[in-house]
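Q: A reviewer asked whether we had any structural model of the full assembly, not just the individual parts. We don't, so I'm hoping you can provide one. Inputs are below.
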Amino acid sequence: MTAFQAPASALLEPWQSPPVDDGDAERFCTTCVFGRVCLPKGYSKHALHRLHCLIEHVGPFQAGQTVFRIHEPFNAVYSVRAGLVKTVLIDERGREQVLGFYTPGEMIGLDAVHTARYSCSAIALDTTLLCRFSFGAMANLAQEMPDLQHTLFQLMSRNIAAAQWGRGDYPADVKFAGFLLDWGQRLAKRGFSAKHFVLPMARTDIASFLSLAPETVSRVIRKLSDDGIATFDRREVTLLKPDLLKRLAGAMPTFELE
Amino acid sequence: MTAFQAPASALLEPWQSPPVDDGDAERFCTTCVFGRVCLPKGYSKHALHRLHCLIEHVGPFQAGQTVFRIHEPFNAVYSVRAGLVKTVLIDERGREQVLGFYTPGEMIGLDAVHTARYSCSAIALDTTLLCRFSFGAMANLAQEMPDLQHTLFQLMSRNIAAAQWGRGDYPADVKFAGFLLDWGQRLAKRGFSAKHFVLPMARTDIASFLSLAPETVSRVIRKLSDDGIATFDRREVTLLKPDLLKRLAGAMPTFELE
DNA sequence: CGACTGTTTGAAGACGATCAACCCCTGTGG
DNA sequence: CCACAGGGGTTGATCGTCTTCAAACAGTCG
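A: Here is a predicted structure for the entire assembly that you could use as a starting point for your response.
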């Protein structure tokens, strides 16, 4: 188990730096996706201990560091505890395609469960802490812990729905509006503001994720600013007229991710 | 359990109409995704019986019929036994976005497991037979049958990877080439030819899936014909130069789906 | 302070969408 | 048996949006 270190984001505003609880031998970290599995239920100390032993805290990864690489042997999946991770694919010409962004409570690597190798690469975008565990071992344990099995199914199902986000050809401003709203919602779920937040990833990564050129993203941002719909100060965003934004994004079918 | 009826596709060439085995009380249908779970292993007759009882054979659905609709209460997932199903989303203007095509052995509805409602609609594209079961009940049973649990995890994982297929902005011909090859591979996995096959879905559906206009698909097809890379006779396709096709599609990152 | 990366802005061009018309095939009904 | 209607598919011409290329700019870190 890795000793806890304060992430660099501790320097940021309070609403940007969630407190991280590393847990202890008997009680799980509250930011962990498995928190709800073991805390309230009457599992035996033994079972909880086995669950706890399965999970290895890794990190911190610094921005730009690779968590795992595509085609590497698949040994483990990761749950984000703090920070931000992107998953990417590289095409023939070396251009990166961003598949998704993962924030605390979300899980990476589940798309490799049916293979022997990772099917994408994962790269930290900020100082990042992760929980790492063998999926096979976790599945074994889930055999005895119905709630754990349920949690795994939920996580995988949500991953399917998330992977379908943004399918379809829509105007650049629509896609970007949808992205802003989705990001706000995900933050809101963790108790932060859905209207005033940071987009910790580079414009380039947003552009890639939305299948747009970085220049186009830049122009959309300018348009949203000019129209008074939102303000952008470097990577800080404030949504001034969320209703207009929703109307924009409404052109695109939305996925309710829970 | 629904009585078996020969699908309309029985009129087609032999390589288009897979034999369908409906199974019996003790032995599972060989086309079922769960076939491998119960056949070789030493499960008790009782467990097998419970598994069997969980699964309800439904259909046939005729082309155009809806299997389930988005936002309907989520009661069950479906495994395709014969035929073809598409999953779709409808946007604000009533335009359909195709999320995926599902052939025998593939499972629909897994993206709704984490919700109370279906997150997309499923529509049969051909005479279709399905296996239907409550995911919750299946998960309960999986608690006692490790191989069943494993199968479910595999299916969900593959669904995640499949949902990521085709992400990114690539030229129309590249996307279509990738689609043709992917379709061929899926058929090959079921023992059919990867070079000579039928695309049972409408051009419109292919276009929507690839985020293209139907006209564009049509033009790409013409180009591939003119270049002697493949021939198209209505919905029948023959790949003449698969290597060239692969070079085309290579521009796009490929997902190895198993 | 100067190299570097990430971001913005501008001008030109390409690709695909759209619109409109036509064609083909199928099924239907007189 | 043929006429007709209708859906799906193809073709052509035009237009828009986004990409591309090029350059300037801003913030960061050594």
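A: Points you may want to mention in the reply: Residues 1-27 of chain A have pLDDT under 50 and may be disordered. The CA atoms of residues 17 and 52 of chain A lie 25 Å apart.
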